[in-house]
């Protein structure tokens, strides 16, 4: 029996922070001040690391504006990375990439459930002994984790095998992961325990506080991962023998509702609504493929989705308190000054943008551009960083902080943390993000159907994409598995309303001061490299195209002497649409048949 959860894991203006009240004026015991008895408050030369990972938290819907404690303890005391991206906008593939430092096409974990993803696929790919906690233990760290690890990590397979690399753990398990008032946790190698009737984030807070106390008593540096399910939808699911292959089955097998806040927060933000940005429920279709066929949402949809939005904000208040409680304990234990605190999420979220019902899985900014905040020794305080960073960079960053060696097979590189590092990175760091997705897209809202064709699950949502950002340009380029193309110039179209490659959109003659097709050829060649890159090629893809090293960015690649070279290259395309990473469906590959041999022809002539 296997778990089929189409269980969907799961411009920023930091303006006035919204104050909130608690109905009884008290926080639950889990958030009280720590006792200092028995805690040594050790201080080593190597730092401790606390890592918060929320589920489906947005950046572009302004959720950070509603979290005053995170603002106080993390944003004001650390650096907010404004251009941070996940590389696959759904939770299990994103979490695996975060913990391995590899793109999903290199982990081959591309879905939330088998056969293409989930905890069983993570194990079968050999990753249970090749990810961050293993490397940290090898470096002399104690490792702790509580909350959601991966999808399809269930009450039936949690011990087949146990997740490796943790000195102590207490995992949320499917099919109860997204049940806010009926969570099941599994501690170390003990049987699962149900917490019916208690709010899952309050339970998590107690477990996180306990692990922190244990870590503080030790004499080694520690890593503590804390992964609340908020603000993911509340989902009632079940265990099934057979996969869902009929979209009509989904409503029968899975019950989606808005997230459920703790009782003390359920009255907050009564007037909050989804931000009415230009791409919110637009009057004309946008995007490509199935997105362009979406109907405009009705008033009934809009009202329900505003309620959905408020429930997300309310549910995040427990996370706000959780973060504050951990920071206060670190200070009480004498550990705060020697601890790095990371705060991020697995993927972003949309509600109404481009007429989309609540969900993720798309390549739009709402889904891939996500919060990352870092606080710690030497981290610039109150900084908003503009450099490009991704989830693939987090494992290299943490290993560097731990004094552990980097790995040759990392697809990312360490994130600059100090002001001097950020200043250097402004001119030296790469400017691209590789975005990829396989399989379905899903609506997690109520879906007030007006037409039999309004399906909750869309099965042709496979695409490869590229984000490239500098002071001069800001572009998104994508190729879908049906070989439709997208290109947005976010300098002039920040809400991605006008796909410059759609037949109904007038195509400009020039872009970035050169002929339009010339830019397009460079973007396609870059994506050709990145869609199957490995290791350092993922960080320095222009080096693969120009091995002499005289091209480091898009602007340099636009030099006219390279025009013949780019005219000759294979183009990104798919052979067919698939629900997972199947190589013969992926079209031509760079290493197998792409650009290398053609380089020799043109390089001697044009370099």
From TrEMBL:
It is an enzyme of class 3 (hydrolase). GO terms for biological process: phenol-containing compound metabolic process. It holds the Pfam family Sulfatase. Keywords: Glycoprotein, Hydrolase, Signal. Residues 1-19 form the signal peptide. Residues 47-404 form the Sulfatase N-terminal domain. Its EC number is 3.1.6.1. InterPro entries: Alkaline_phosphatase_core_sf, Arylsulfatase, Sulfatase_CS, Sulfatase_N. One of its GO terms (molecular function) is N-acetylglucosamine-6-sulfatase activity. CDD domains: G6S. PROSITE patterns: SULFATASE_1. The modification 3-oxoalanine (Cys) is found at residue 91. It catalyses: an aryl sulfate + H2O = a phenol + sulfate + H(+). The conversion to 3-oxoalanine (also known as C-formylglycine, FGly), of a serine or cysteine residue in prokaryotes and of a cysteine residue in eukaryotes, is critical for catalytic activity. Belongs to the sulfatase family. PANTHER family: N-ACETYLGLUCOSAMINE-6-SULFATASE FAMILY MEMBER (PTHR43108), SD21168P (PTHR43108:SF8). This is Arylsulfatase. It comes from Canariomyces notabilis.
